[in-house]
Amino acid sequence: MKSYYKGLFSGLLSGVLWGADTAINGWVLLAVPFSLIDKRLVIASLLLAFFHDFFSTLWLILMQIITGDLRITLSKIYTRSAGVIVLAALFGGPIGMQAYLFAIDTIGAGYTASISALYPVVAATLGSLFLKDYLTLKGWLGLLLSVLAIIILGYSQLQSPQNQVVWGFVAACICASGWAAESVICAYGMKDDLIKPNEALLIRQFTSSIAYLALIICSGHGWFNIYNVISRPIVLIIVVLALIGTASYLYYYQAIDTIGPVKATGMNVTYSVWAIIFSIFLLKGHWDTKLIVCSIMIVIGTFLISRK
Q1: Of 67-71, 102-106, 169-173, 225-229, where does mean pLDDT reach its minimum?
Q2: How do residues 90-102 score in pLDDT, each as one tens digit?
Q3: DSSP state string for the chain
Q4: Sign of the torsion formed by the C-alpha atoms of 29, 35, 38 and 39
Q5: Rg of the chain's alpha carbons, rounded to an integer?
Q6: Residue 158 binned pLDDT confidence (cut-offs 50, 70, 90)
Q7: Which of 17, 36, 30 is nearest to 241 (CA)?
């Protein structure tokens, strides 16, 4: 039970940190040089995704050097479990994270967090099919309650007829599918305890950053765009942002390994509320009745999901 509650706390803390990560991502995309890039292109979100995961990789390497675990992690790179984590990274990184940042840049951090937070439903379905990780009836009710609150939060934004809003919505849905697949595949890769959560995360972040770099180079003017970011003060904020994201991922992977992907995503989904709260303070938004009611619904839903 102690391990179970530790897993629940890890999942919840990952949601708080990812909410902060989401809000800061939205702020960074409004800053130079990202704000100067044509919004019809995905280069801005692709660049930020690359730097986010690249600096996260460096943070993880530094942590493992300090703890003396880096050599152990490197010795596991060619194992079957590591290959599974690489596959999970492709779903969560180039597919999920890229779609996530594109949606933030298109429809905003708050609405992106609300729509993409549908991923626990997909994760619950995949988890029951492939890992036999089932929710109880109360757990499903809690999950549906959280999803209903998320839909209410995001619905008003989707009434806009603009093409960019539609593509932002599509991107947020793709993000939800990618993240759900990542959590289930990652749980499968760690199920034999050969790879620990921090080792899996290092493999994941390194894989996704390499994939992003390849996409940036293929998009044209890749090195120029990279230099344009690292030559500006905004890169220091991205370094701190990557540290917040790294902490969120560490707690999330710990929760997946401890309580399974279904409950872990159920706890992590609270980031949709935290993202809106952080956005209010960082981007000077406003509270409204809908946000308060939906936040309460998500909290109740999370409680039902987390019950043993």
Answers
A1: 102-106
A2: 898 888 877 887 8
A3: -HHHHHHHHHHHHHHHHHHHHHHHHHHHTTSTTGGGS-TTSSHHHHHHHHHHHHHHHHHHHHHHHHHT-HHHHHHTTTSHHHHHHHHHHHIIIIIIIHHHHHHHHHH-HHHHHHHHTTHHHHHHHHIIIII-----HHHHHHHHHHHHHHHHHHHGGGG---HHHHHHHHHHHHHHHHHHHHHHHHHHHHTTSSS-HHHHHHHHHHHHHHHHHHHHHHHSSHHHHHHHHHTSTHHHHHHHHHHHHHHHHHHHHHHHHHHHHHHHHHHHTTHHHHHHHHHHHHTT----HHHHHHHHHHHHHHHHHH--
A4: positive
A5: 18
A6: low
A7: 17
How many whole angstroms separate alpha carbon 139 and alpha carbon 132? 15
Sign of the CA dihedral running 208, 118, 254, 184: negative
> 65 burial class (0-12, 13-18, 19+ CB within 10 angstroms)?
exposed
Burial class (CB in 10 A: 0-12, 13-18, 19+), 89: buried
- What pLDDT, on the 0 to 100 scale, is given for residue 261? 76
| 58/38 Cα distance (integer angstroms) | 29
Distance CA 21, CA 244 (A): 6
Average pLDDT in the 225-254 region? Answer: 91
- The number of beta carbons lying within 10 Å of the beta carbon of residue 42 is 21
pTM: 0.80
Amino acid letter, 49? A
Cα separation, 264 vs 256, in Å, equals 5
Residue 192 exposed, middle or buried by CB count within 10 Å (0-12, 13-18, 19+): exposed
- Residue 42 confidence (pLDDT): 66
For residue 218, give every residue at least 6 positions away whose Cβ sits within 8 Å of its Cβ, in sequence order, or none: none
